[in-house]
Structures
1.
Amino acid sequence: MRLLKIVLVVAGLCAATAFASPTAPRNGAEYTTLKTPQPVQAQGKKVEVIEFFMYHCPACYALEPAMLEWVKKQGDNISFRRIHLPLTGENDPEAHMFLTLEAMKLEEGLHAKILSTWHVERKRLKSDADNIDWAVKNGVDKEKYTATYNSFAVMTRLKNAGRVASTYEVNSTPTMIVDGRYLTNPTMVDSANPGIPRPQLGAATLQVLDALVEQARKGK
């Protein structure tokens, strides 16, 4: 009888492991559904995907190459954008820099350079002065950058950045929001699938995104 119980327990564990899969994500495991769905900017049949990130975040930097390939692969299926999580609150210099460059329509072109500054050159952009100095050294007009940096529009968005993150129920990075409804991140995928090797966690997270995008498309 004892042997039979052990066999049944082992079989149950094997079945649970087999059921866990990034290609068939489960609500409450590999992803969660937001309590209050948020409006999306994507139009038509495109599915909005938002990546909450931080410039200094090692996990964001590690995911970046695969994420860019994934966005390229999805093509017209999705509308992709980033939101910088304001780690230190209303005066967070990283989020301030992101919002300034985004307002100037320069963030996308400089995104890789900023990440390289943090993670390859190991230079920390931790203050307003650091940000302005970096921007000027990388070809941004100082007067225009400073004016935008201190503009009412950017300061208002910076002040509200924490509220935006809270609305999306985001408290860590990288975290992805699909169609204003579904939230996932590598930590959730790892917890739900403990057998995934660490080097494959990024790919597994993107598999979850694939499934969520398809789920959202079917609901349109």
2.
Amino acid sequence: MTPQSDEDEVWRQIVASFNETAEDASAEQPWPDRENVTEEPDAGEDDGASGDAAPGDGIRDDDGTGDGTGEMRASAPADDHYIPPAPPPLPHGDTLSRLSWLALFGGPAYLLLAALLQWPMDGWIVFAAVAAFIAGFVILVVRMGDGPPADSGWDDGAVV
């Protein structure tokens, strides 16, 4: 037999035994029995049917009396929710960057609006809108500050 035919035979056996079930699953477990997961009810779930809740233990009545006459509900999950802090305010930016953003979006927006409303567009209006778009883009890219910080010194770190 050739190595290729051995491999083909192994694949045929794998395909033939695909839908078979193991006779003794516990004998073939690759992990210890103590790691098997059993389904247990969650300790935090309480359907209110046990009746062993005492007043003041995190469960209260809907009517607020705590005497057990109203429907009980758990108040602890509501207290455990994460409330993120308020986000910091957005940076205001200087006048040049605001004008650059206006030119970047304003030029194409004007051309689109003029085309939809069929306004007459002279050559200089189209040129000004395209020039505003290009100028806004260039100013924003130049001001990105992609270089190293000014206080980083002469060493730029490891170069790979």
3.
Amino acid sequence: MTSNESGLPGLRGTDHIGFTVPNLDEAVAFFVDVIGCEAFYELGPFEGGEWMAQQLGVHPQTVMKKLKFLRCKHGSNFELFEYQAPDQNREQPKNSDIGGHHLAFYVDDFDAALDYLKANGVEIMGEPVVRTAGPSGGQTWVYFKAPWGMQLELLSYPNGKAYEKDYQHKLWHPAHPAE
């Protein structure tokens, strides 16, 4: 590695985001039928043991019931897991918890997408936030929940974000993946 290179050699980007759901079939149906992802292959079950404890950091008696890969348009793939483990925490982490997270979905037409989620009975958390100033100026967002309580975000910034005028490079954008 030369002195002006940093990071993983050959890094291209994020291949997938993996997360555990309480019911794989329910989660796949939500991500395919409501969000618009495309389902691909599944694997499992895999019995626990020392290999899974070492490789995945789970209890040795864990069973990975199934996993399934999904593609979400021009963004990262998802790897959904359904586990059964004696020490499993079945509570969704809050954003403020260590390991707390959310998935954000970019849309071209925020209002149409929000109306669509509401029409499909999706729980919307609060009211949309419209940023008019600061580095995220131009962005509109709102959180919503998957049926099992996982927090998701709907966002749009069709004319870009305000930070872009001060930076030579831009954050990756699903509507313009090559830029």
